[in-house]
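During the no-cost extension, the postdoctoral fellow (Dr. R.K.) reprocessed legacy sequence entries with the updated structure-token encoder. One reprocessed record is reproduced below for audit purposes.
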Amino acid sequence: MRNTLLQRLQYQPSSLDISLHGLTEEQVKLKPLPDKWSIFENLAHLARYHKVFKERVGLITGPGTPVFQPYKADNDPAFFEWQKKPYGQLMDDFYTDRAELNKQLAALTEEQLQGTARHPMYGLLNMEGWTEMFLLHEAHHFFTIIKLAAMVVPGEVIGR
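Re-encoded structure tokens follow.
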């Protein structure tokens, strides 16, 4: 796996330290936009998706070319279970699963990196392509989280 992808996998979650710094569990669970997810729901989605992506990595690096439908959290019963976790536990699980995913991806062989899977919208991607999609998806949610943090604590400085 390209070193740049491995570095982004390792360090991208540190942006949460800035976005979430000083927020209470109550603030994280507030819904400033009633028809959109809260910060907590975005985090639960990302935490749950680590499990989904680890499973997909196993399929992509195995025999054949699987086809993955777009993941929709609202259609995943496990997503609702993740939303029931206390904030601290959710974040612990997020970081634990991220470390496992990083280790899994760093250990892939050149042959495994050539494995592919198809997505109906994004086409045929190899393992590095899927990893790029994972990181971009996560970054989108991190950007959403920082915007929500500004709504939850209007007028306050976000970050350290």
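The CA atoms of residues 19 and 143 lie 9 Å apart. Strands lie at 116-119, 123-126. The remaining legacy entries will be reprocessed before the final report is submitted.
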